[in-house]
Amino acid sequence: MKRYIILILCLAAVASQAQHNTLSSTEKKEGWQLLFDGKTTKGWHTYKSAKAGEAWKISEDALFLDTSNKEAKGGDLVTDQEFENYELYLEWKIQPCGNSGVIFNVQESDEYKYVWLTGPEMQVLDNECHPDAKIIKHRAGDLYDLISCSQETVKPAGEWNAARLISNKGKYEFWLNGVKTVAFTMHTPEWDAMVAGSKFKSMAGFGKFSKGRIALQDHGDQVWYRNIKIKPL
Q1: What's the rounded Cα separation, in Å, for the pair 156 and 165?
Q2: Domain of 219?
Q3: Does residue 17 lie within any of the structural domains?
Q4: Does residue 102 fall inside a structural domain?
């Protein structure tokens, strides 16, 4: 009987761990909010559109960019809400040789045609075979084209990665699979100089904002995002 009870408890623990896109009681008390319900694209829309593009689907309990149908449009997916001072957690996996990104402080207005004209990016990439992996500051977990990871912690294509992005009064941290990989401060002379030496130097609105939408990039490759949650700081 004792063994039977232990088995039931173990099975229950496994089932609990497998339940994605939910908040624990502790997370709820801490103020975490789900940004993805696991079933719909509610709370998200394609940049400068009224709803999510049809290529964004739900698969494996994740927001999935299905690029198999070239007629179906996806586009960069952005949150309905804007955020400032927060901790963001999400999990992602990418197809072999794939590219995507998590872009933040995105401004959605007629002035800016693309999300990357205003928002810096945490790179999502298959480091093994995507051409960008050969470029310093373009690898998974990097602050794209600005700061490279302190160490490589990304998992191979097809495996899930756990990412954190912390924004707190201009100070930022990137975490990938439990390791802090990048730290920086925005809106300083040092930040401005770094941007001036990057591919973003001619983009007047890039990296100028401390609040905005969060975007999941459509780079033309299949990518999955799940367990997307945020805690205001």
Answers
A1: 21
A2: 22-232
A3: no
A4: yes
